[in-house]
Amino acid sequence: MSEILKTELLNVSYGEKKALKNISISIPANEITALIGPSGCGKSTFLRVFNRMNDFIKSCKITGDVYVENKQINQKNVVVEELRKKVGMVFQKPNPFPKSIFENIAYGLKVQGVKDKETIKNRVEESLKQSYLWEEVKDTLNESALSLSGGQQQRLCFARTIAIKPSIILMDEPTSALDPIATAKIEELIIDLKKDYTIVIVTHNMQQASRISDNTAFFYMGELIEYGKTEVLFKNPSKESTENYITGRFG
């Protein structure tokens, strides 16, 4: 599998606090890579380097190289809006816009300059189908997205993300606010999406990481401790601290 995301000697700090230390990693295309580790270990900071979301934090300083599709993205000449078309993001809590279900998904297309109504209509339907939501909402597309359940809202956020056809989707604990049934639906969706997308997911749920991911990276105190195939890392970790974390001895 070819790599699609890569960092070399990546360091991230917030003021005096070092959040990530010398992270070098290659993430393959069309696979699911899980980032695990205790709270505050740098997982979400690492995730956000790939769509430059850390730019919004004034105290954040980044050194080292970050590549998306073999292009260095930390340079001044990078058009961040173009980058974020390629690298979509789904957050921890569902965050639909206070608009209709249809407009939530059409919004990103319109921002990109898509004007043809038929194209928008088709893309909305296609995205909702891909997100396993179409059958539940096809008759209520003009109703407020805020009337949906939490699990439906999160699937709507997936639909909104994939409508603009990114190649990479970053997910920051996308099921932590959901019940087990909604979580199972989202996990099924994530596995299905890897045919068309590269997925990097932060999760605190060890079972989830072992169920859905192809690769797992274990972070601890800003360092990448271990990274490899999920099956190997969970069954036969090479580092004692990895084993202690996944067996619940700390974290």
Detailed description of the structure:
This protein is α/β, with parallel strands linked by helices and 251 residues long. The protein has a domain at 3-96 and 166-246: P-loop containing nucleotide triphosphate hydrolases (Rossmann fold, 3-Layer(aba) Sandwich), CATH 3.40.50. It has helices at residues 43-48, 80-86, 101-111, 117-130, 134-137, 150-163, 180-193, 206-212, 230-235, 240-246, and strands at residues 3-14, 17-28, 32-36, 60-68, 71-72, 87-90, 168-172, 198-202, 215-220, 223-229. Strands 6-7-8-3-9-10 form a six-stranded mixed β-sheet. A four-stranded antiparallel β-sheet has the order 2-1-4-5, with no helix packed on it. Helix 4 crosses helix 6 (150-163). The two termini are 32 Å apart.
Core attributes:
251 residues; alpha/beta; Rossmann fold; six-stranded mixed sheet; four-stranded antiparallel sheet; 10 strands
CATH homologous superfamily designation of the domain at 3-96 and 166-246: P-loop containing nucleotide triphosphate hydrolases
Q: How many E-type strands?
A: 10
Beta percentage is 25-35%
The chain-level structural class is alpha/beta
CATH fold-level label of the domain at 3-96 and 166-246: Rossmann fold
- Outline, from the CA principal axes? globular
Q: Helical amount among residues, as a percent range? A: 25-40%
Terminal CA distance reads 32 Å
Question: What would you report as the Rg, rounded to the nearest angstrom?
Answer: 18 Å
Kindly state the mean pLDDT as a whole number? 94
**At the first level of CATH, what is the class of the domain at 3-96 and 166-246?**
Alpha Beta
Q: What is the element string, with H for helices and E for strands?
A: EEEHEEHEHHHHEHEHEEHH
**What's the total helix number?**
10
The largest sheet, given as strand count, sense and whether it forms a barrel, is: 6 strands, mixed
